[in-house]
């Protein structure tokens, strides 16, 4: 009996010792800090996704509902089901956003390959000037450019007699102007890390410059090209201000403008806003997770302004 | 002799034509980018200066080049606008609000990023996943996160923060947090820090991981505790990164329109210069006044950057 008690005491003592050893102040602070950050980050996203499945009664209740009683698709049906009352035709907004974001990304990649090749490999006067000048764009606030752009577009519309506003092509061009400088800068730096000798060898073998770019430079730069493409896609997909100013016709609204419209509707329907936000956010998060390795490097090289 | 000269000459000629074609090719390759950037960034920026000296409203927008020149009137109007100028502690005016908000939120963003980077610099199970999750606020579209926050802070019974605070007994009735002067600006600052700390975190983390471990080992041999190590090794090692992030984030926060516009619409003491620029131009349709506000912003930025660079240069000369 007594030996058993003693045994127990010894074991207990060991356990507490063990605890005291593993549970230092540092570890405790670390755990608290991690918990704080993770919950602060995750909760708004959880709220967005879970709220998109709530019913109207759960939205307007006397207290917030943290877990929806069932996965109701009311909000999604309002967005996509033509038979639903106050049908939002959200599909067309998704198409508009894709029509802006995909061409922006593709054109940005192609143009920045061309420009970056020129400024990394070819010797010409004004090369450094262009590279540095291009970074000045970083300084210009979006609100500074929106007024002259708006005035220019009005003037052009009037002169040429076609509607430049409510035109997705203009948005593509505007986003290109915003993203190309940094894309060019990033790719130039990447091209400079590719040994020149490989290209020289291909040139001596009789390849033309374009063949060299196509067969040597581009395959070697795939990671950087993916980064540039995804970044420009994300920027174009997320962009709010220019789309807000340039688009007035409902049929041309991109997703952010549509969400803003639903949000400001006289009868508040937050679950619909959350459903639309969920649809807008998920592709971005998925893209980000899929290419995180490349994108983190891009982030640290300052590729995203915002 | 003659032969070598002629071959030299041929070589020179050859290289020249090669060089000329290279230059031609370079310009062809860079031209599309140059046209787009010039046409949609540099030209508008210059045009904006012109607009700021003219009277332009919706009525003469189509005939912009014949707008009347009014000198500095737009600038005077902005500087005397009650929304811009300092009107006492209850009515800060946009320029004080902007400076307060950009500095404080950049500072908090930096601190948040530093703490997050230190947390993630420690090996633990699931660190990779945690790092990805930490970046979510930064990559997610601003419009969706801003509206989630608005709902969390909503004064209606379904607002989460109200519900929590009432249950904790900290407040008695529902509050409209984002519509409370004084509080709203702090909420905007917290939102900014929440959304942008991952950027600071990523940059600091990259630097932290490059610090030589032997420094810490040597300090441990000398009997330094964690705090001493942090102060005398970590901070000096990441000083320059912190300075660079501070500058970058400050510029971007200063210029930011979307976040504040979507959270408060610039009301309740959160009217900053970018929002004011928007209001002058697209609510009041006074484009000249809007452009003047943007130019004042730009001037403040340039002055700040020059000052910052000068201080940095003097410091680096001293040390």
Summarize this structure briefly.
The complex is a heterodimer of chains A (306) and B (319). Chain A is mainly alpha-helical. Chain A folds into 2 domains: 2-51, no CATH class; 90-300, MetI-like fold (Orthogonal Bundle).
Instruction: Describe the main β-sheet of chain B briefly.
Output: none
The CATH architecture category of the largest domain in chain B equals: Orthogonal Bundle
Task: Give the SSE string of chain A.
Answer: HHHHHHHHHHHHHHH
Number of helices of chain A: 15
How would you classify the helix and strand content of chain B by structural class? Answer: mainly alpha
CATH topology of the largest domain in chain A: MetI-like fold
So what's the overall shape of chain B?
Answer: globular
CATH superfamily of the largest domain in chain A: MetI-like
* Extended strand count of chain A: 0
Low-confidence stretches of chain A: none
Number of domains of chain A: 2
Structural class of chain A: mainly alpha
β content of chain B, as a range?
Answer: under 5%
Q: What is the C-alpha radius of gyration of chain B, as a whole number of Å? A: 27 Å
Element order of chain B: H for helix, E for strand? HHHHHHHHHHHHH
Question: Regarding CATH, which class of the largest domain in chain A?
Answer: Mainly Alpha
Helix count of chain B, per DSSP? 13
């Amino acid at each position: 009996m007594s030996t058993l008690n003693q045994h127990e005491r010894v074991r207990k003592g060991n356990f507490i010792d063990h605890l005291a050893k593993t549970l230092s102040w540092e570890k405790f602070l670390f755990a608290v800090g991690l918990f704080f950050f993770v919950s602060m980050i995750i909760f708004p996203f959880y709220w967005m996704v879970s709220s998109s499945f709530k019913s109207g009664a759960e939205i307007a209740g006397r207290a917030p509902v943290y877990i929806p009683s069932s996965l109701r698709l009311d909000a999604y049906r309002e967005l996509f089901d033509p038979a639903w009352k106050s049908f939002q035709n959200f599909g067309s907004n998704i198409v508009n956003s894709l029509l802006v974001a995909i061409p922006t990304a593709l054109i940005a990649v192609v143009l920045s390959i061309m420009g970056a090749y020129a400024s990394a490999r070819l010797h010409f006067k004004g090369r450094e000037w262009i590279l540095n000048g291009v970074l000045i764009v970083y300084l210009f606030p979006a609100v500074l450019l929106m007024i002259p752009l708006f005035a220019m577009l009005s003037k052009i519309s009037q002169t040429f007699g076609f509607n430049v506003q409510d035109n997705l092509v203009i948005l593509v061009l505007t986003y290109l102007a915003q993203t190309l400088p940094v894309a060019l800068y990033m790719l130039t730096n990447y091209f400079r890390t590719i040994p020149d000798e490989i290209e020289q060898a291909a040139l001596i073998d009789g390849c033309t410059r374009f063949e060299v770019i196509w067969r040597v430079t581009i395959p070697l730069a795939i990671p950087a090209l993916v980064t540039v493409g995804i970044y420009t896609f994300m920027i174009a997909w997320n962009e709010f201000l220019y789309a807000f100013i340039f688009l007035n016709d409902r049929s041309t609204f991109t997703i952010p403008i549509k969400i803003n419209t639903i949000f400001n509707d006289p009868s508040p329907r937050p679950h619909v806003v959350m459903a639309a936000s969920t649809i807008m956010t998920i592709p971005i998060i998925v893209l980000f997770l899929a290419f995180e390795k490349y994108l983190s490097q891009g982030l640290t090289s300052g590729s995203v302004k915002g | 002799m003659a032969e070598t000269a002629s071959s030299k000459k041929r070589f020179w000629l050859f290289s020249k034509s090669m060089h000329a074609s290279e230059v031609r090719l370079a310009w062809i390759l860079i031209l599309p980018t140059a046209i787009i950037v010039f046409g949609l960034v540099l030209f508008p920026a210059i045009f904006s200066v012109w607009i700021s000296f003219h009277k332009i409203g919706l009525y003469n927008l189509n005939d912009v080049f014949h707008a009347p020149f009014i000198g500095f009137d737009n600038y005077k109007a902005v500087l005397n606008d009650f929304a811009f100028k300092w009107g006492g502690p209850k009515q800060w005016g946009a320029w004080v609000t902007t400076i307060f908000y950009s500095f404080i939120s950049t500072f908090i963003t930096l601190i948040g990023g530093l703490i997050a980077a230190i947390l993630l610099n420690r090996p633990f199970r699931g660190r990779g996943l945690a790092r990805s999750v930490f970046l979510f606020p930064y990559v997610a579209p601003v419009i969706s996160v801003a509206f989630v926050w608005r709902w969390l802070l909503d004064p209606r019974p379904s607002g989460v923060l109200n519900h929590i605070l009432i249950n904790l007994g900290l407040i008695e009735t529902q509050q409209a947090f984002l519509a409370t002067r004084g509080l709203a600006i702090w909420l905007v600052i917290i939102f900014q820090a929440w959304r942008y700390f991952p950027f600071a975190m990523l940059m600091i983390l990259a630097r932290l991981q490059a610090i030589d471990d032997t420094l810490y080992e040597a300090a441990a041999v000398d009997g330094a505790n964690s705090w001493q190590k942090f102060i005398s090794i970590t901070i000096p090692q990441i000083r320059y990164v912190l300075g660079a992030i501070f500058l970058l984030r400050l510029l971007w926060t200063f210029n930011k329109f979307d976040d504040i516009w979507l959270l408060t619409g610039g009301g309740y003491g959160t009217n900053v210069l970018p929002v004011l620029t928007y209001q002058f131009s697209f609510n009041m349709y006074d484009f000249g006044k809007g452009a003047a506000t943007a130019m004042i912003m730009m001037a403040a930025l340039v002055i700040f950057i020059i000052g910052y660079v000068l201080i940095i240069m003097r410091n680096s000369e001293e040390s």
